[in-house]
Protein 1
Amino acid sequence: MNPAEFSPLDPRLEQAINEIRDISPDDAEVEAAAARVWARLASPQHLRSCADFQALISEYRAGRLNEARAALLQDHLHECVACRKVYEGRVVSLPAAQRPARRAAPVFRWAMAAAVVLAAGGAVWFVIQEYGVGPGRAVVQSVNGTLFALGADGTLHSLAAGQNLPDGVEIRTAKDSGAMLRLRDGSLVELRERAAVSTSGGAEDLTLHLNRGDVIVQAAHRRKGHLYVATADCRVAVTGTVFSVVSGVKGSRVSVVEGEVHVAQDNQDHVLHPGDQISTTASLEPRPLGDDIGWSRNRDRLLERLQSLRIQIRQIQLPALRYSSRLIGRLPANTAAFASIPNFGQYLADAQAVLAKNLEESPELRAWWEGRAASSGVLLEKLRAASGYLGDEVALVGLAGTDGHIGTPVFLAETRRPGFREFLKDAAPGITVTERAGLVVFGPNAPAVEALAVGLDSTSAQFQTSPFYHRIADAYHQGAGLLLCVDFSQAPESSHAALRYILAGRKQIRDRMETRATFGFGGEKPGIASWLAAPGPMGSLDYVSPEATLAAAFVVRDPRAIVDQVASIGGRFVGRIGKPESPASQPVSGDAAALRSQLASALGGEFSLSFDGPIFPPSWKLVAEVYDPARAQAAIRQIVDAYNRDAAASGGKPLRTSEETVSGRVYYMIAAADPNPLTEAHYTFADGYLIAGPTRALISKALETKTAGASITHSAQFMSFEPSDQFANYSAVLYENLGTTLAPLAGLLGAFAPSEARGHLAEGLGNVKPIFVAAYAGPDQVTVALTGRDLPLGQSEDSLLSGDLGGILSNVFPIARIHSGATK
């Protein structure tokens, strides 16, 4: 199996944590999630097999199925080909006994569930959402001035906030007036003065007809169907976007603020991204996007209040770190996975108080909350109420079966006061609950709940003597926030046989979130883990300036590992230049490996690679510890000579070399046959290090940085991201701080990229947050600590275990997103 599939260090974990702290979830997504959970947990009759679903088809056709079960049946018909054929009348339903039993879920599925629960606060089982659909497809959210409905008799009738709007009735705003409508799917529509709209639609799609005037639409995310905005000469199809539409005498204009919009006009479909604009006639010219939405009465004040709310929420203290657990000592011997989150009750109560105060003070924020996020208030209240019954932490426990798979996860917690069983009975009737001497075990799978409850009854202390228990206990001794531990010794399907366990956690330290994961191995460590040395000093970073946008340094056991990696990375980079005469494309002698080994024998065990200068052309810098400069230079010369011999034999061009002494220092140069700043390298030896870069000026600057003692390691920015632990040094460290420096590059590339890719470029490169990754190697494990922006560890884990340094760098250095953005 691939451990990346359950790693809590995935960017989805950061996204979930931010949503909780920012209190700005998308209403449609909450509704969709709540609908699925309600259908599975609150239904009086569980749907476990295809026969159960097929039994509902006749009721569904007759329209007698309630909304929750109808949604569940629709989801199943979408996924199950056999049941869909039965629904369409193409086959006869098979008896349930003829259907094969489902395979036991592999470990990564429940582990992914554990990570999601860990991120969301550990209480998603309480998500119960109340639904209510009034007549018509829209309701008046707020009115500034006068809002009319055009009656069948041609007269105008005044409308007030809270009134439902039936289909087909035209709604008009008077002069100097505006209004906010909330559509059935949660979308918000703001009407400018003298605007006229109406609605229509079917079971899944909803159309807003803009007869005239200006509207700003905040379209909700939808699992099915679309929201359409139709004018006299075009139709806009959207989901989960923000855009404006102008419909006037000259024609229509569509402007996109965020997301993707499809505009159909004259049998042609145009795809617009943030900042894009289209007009249906040549006489209606484009205008700045800000002007098209600048009339909004709510925009500026709402954004200001939202930002203030986010700041206030971030100032609320998270639950204190836990340094012990009364749960792990009660776990049965076959515990193979354990996830723990703190009780967020007080945090949620404080967040609700801050939110209530802001809603009371701001009509704009109140209207937005009622229109898009009010259901989140129901969720928060249920989470807060549930936390009042439970102790300081809630655990998610997985037990290993005899087949090596880990069963359905089950929740375990201490009870603070009685009544939790009754609370769950009202909130989620399908949940199984068992109490054991001050502990409560609960979950949707009754056999799994019973299995853990029986294990808790055992007086055996076998688990407390296991290595897995001691690893969990050690994590608590260091202070636990969000914690996830998986024992792979009981999971034979692991794709990396040497991987024995993963212990990952996320906690707040000095107002900064820090994520840490430890990979434990049995036998010899694989990939990069095998060649990283124990933490040690890194003098190579003394040559890197504080302005560096990327710096990576390593302390290794065998220099040959880095020599091979650098050769591979350099070859791949030069090969991408596309010149057939570049070094990467020329044949290499069979003696290359021996020459690299000769070069490595002259080197120490420390290296750094950085980008320290202008973004383009790239100002890379390689610094390597050298014990014998003369021997290293001799090896480099032999490698160049061997390359040139092979190039001559194959009709290629030789490398150019030079040697020059300036102020008593010897500088060397190696370059491709044809002058090109991207395929030229200069280097020198100084104080036991080789310093290389694309220009001699960059090398001189590196020497000056070392002499002045003003390197990146003394930078306040660099030090502010260093993780807090007992280590004075690192086995490996990676720091990236591109910030807004890529914005000009994104704009430059956007001019040459297809229009549909420009939004991706701006989003991916316009404002990249810093990241700091540190690694500490031990005899049988590697610990990785992250601060700042989360590294996509799920994508980089295979690179870590396989030894692909270039793969890790490509994930961390976001310039790689240029290509991915341009090809989307």
Protein 2
Amino acid sequence: MRIATACFAAVFAAAVSFAQDADPGRILFEKTCARCHGSDGNGGELGPAIIRRLPQHNDQQLASLIREGLPGGMPPSQVNDAEMAQLTRFLRTLQRRPGRPIVRMKVQTVNGATLEGQALNQGFDDLQLRTDDQQIHLLRRAGGDRYREVTSETNWPGYNGDPGGNRYTTLSQITKANVAHLGPKWVFTLPNTGRLQVTPIVFAGMMYVTSANECYALDAGSGRQIWHYQRARTRGLAGDASGGTNRGVSLAGDRLFLETDDAHLIALNRSTGELLWDSEIADWHLNYFATSAPLAVGSLVVAGVGGGEHGARGFVAAFDQATGKEAWRFWTVPLPGEKGAQTWDGKGIQHPGAPTWFTGTYDRETDTVFWPTGNPSAEYNGDDRPGDNLYADCILALDAKSGKLKWYYQSTPHDLWDWDATETPVVLDANWHGQPRKLLVQANRNGFFYVFDRTDGKLLLGKPFVKNLTWASGIDDQGRPVKLPNQEPAAAGTKVCPSQDGATNWFSPSYNPATGLYYIQTFEKCSVYSKRDPGNWEAGKTYLGGSQRTSPEGPPERVLKAIDLQTGKIVWELPQPGPAESWGGTLSTATGLVIFGEEGGSLMAADAKTGKPLWSFQTNQVWKASPMTYEFDKKQYIGVAAGSNIIAFGILE
């Protein structure tokens, strides 16, 4: 919230006499701030509207903002507690008022129907109308005073589109022949945000995008805002959530599901943004947080938590979509005495990590949730946790209805390098060496590409997919990595490849059944890992066992790779100039394209068979998100978050 300098400075520097028959907070605001922000808070001659910004702050945060000021904006102000209470109470009444007058309209459609309701937003050609049944109608002018109703013919209803995790589309309008004519159709900027990590989802013509504790509903054809939900960010959080990270929502029926920074799961009405329920997943005071999109599965919604670098004990939990009541919970680290506890030999089990911060996938045929887990805490020092440390660095196959474990695979037993297994486990049905098989595929942060039979967890293939891999020579017959000597972190530092960022990470892969190739953005770089005593666990603080830095030997490299599913062989690769710091993923199409965020900031398209670059658009942003696609009003769009912007691309006519 930006409140003009002159307004509050004048308020708090002067003595104010309050009339006995009026709200003293209102009088205080009107005498000194109305010229800047308007008497209703909707903006004035010198200042912005503040109504929509007030929900960003709770009362304590609002008081701190007024007293401490903003760099380059409002200076600090001396306000006594009585004045602050009066002013805050009045500001909250502004917050509850409409941001602008309600405009009702009656429109005729080309099919002869009459629609009447609240006009949410409109331009020369488009109108968003909410009828009295709370349904949203997306309209386009069809000549004169008539409108036609539009929506999406092909949706993108979850983080990866398909719940199985494969970002592959059968939409066919954007092809190798016309991709050179791809260009931006609209841009929507999320205010007060940094590098967004969200993947937009689209359903019935509406797009939903998020930042921390915020959700925007947009017209997917124009980018116009329809509604905005926001709650105050939590102060004092540990981890990524403190920086505003959020990767998106999940949708089922008329409900959207969003994880908040303080590890709550909330449900919103998808048409209005109204809060339907709010369930605590975990107590954030114990170093939990949440950043990723939940996963809608049947009548449940499944969510995970962050906190691996802070000693939180990980778990996956499922909640009833209608009520928010918890249905089941699977802990990723057993308690002492439980099955698997023997893999934690020492006091490290007390604050173990193994978080579940990234979105899992779902197989409808076997009714199985596949959820990836993160690293153990005190990650660079394993002295207090000898053993494999189950179920850290695992893919968990969980029964969707009960949460019971069907099988698991641990990619990095006794992880000392922060190699979470939190890379998308992709559900595929494909021929495997000539026979139809139900597969699960993951390119892991540790540098190995895995193919499993997803019905029983049998490992079918485990092969390196990066050149810089020094910690293991391969995978043995038991499915375990064959570790190489002298690769553990040491006080003096140990060079290990891949780097702490991993050979890949949470940015999205995709698979094209026509080419048989799996497309993944990779890092070719190494880290120098240093070991130290993690000390005692404390709430609100990291719980590490050392540190890491990028190795100065050899320049890091970002490389798009196409992996043969049957053999693990790299069929082609596309190196990208730059410092290897971007985190954009891939989208593959039935028309033979791979669309991805490249290291230099461009959204690019390459030939799926050869890797030849075919198109690019420079966003001048460091990628932190992966592209998606949808069809709206019979036109195919590519949507992606770039910096603080959501950009929708289509063929320019």
Protein 3
Amino acid sequence: MANSKDPRNTQQQVIDYLLTNPCKTETEIQLNVWGYNRQKSKESNKKYADVLRRAYFKGKIDRIRIQFKDKDTRKYWYYFVPLGH
């Protein structure tokens, strides 16, 4: 889904992706929208995370926290586009 003609990372790219692929994690969004693999890249994910945070704080996307397994203390944030957007 990465667009080589648009070198900028935009909130609209995230919204478009989440409209057709709801409830995705930050890692899944970064990989599928921009081709950025945070586990394998030496590059910082700050610029990608900032795009997500800006869209979240502006109310363009929302997130829910899901915890798997009772003994697992890790929390996962899943992002989606709220109804009416």
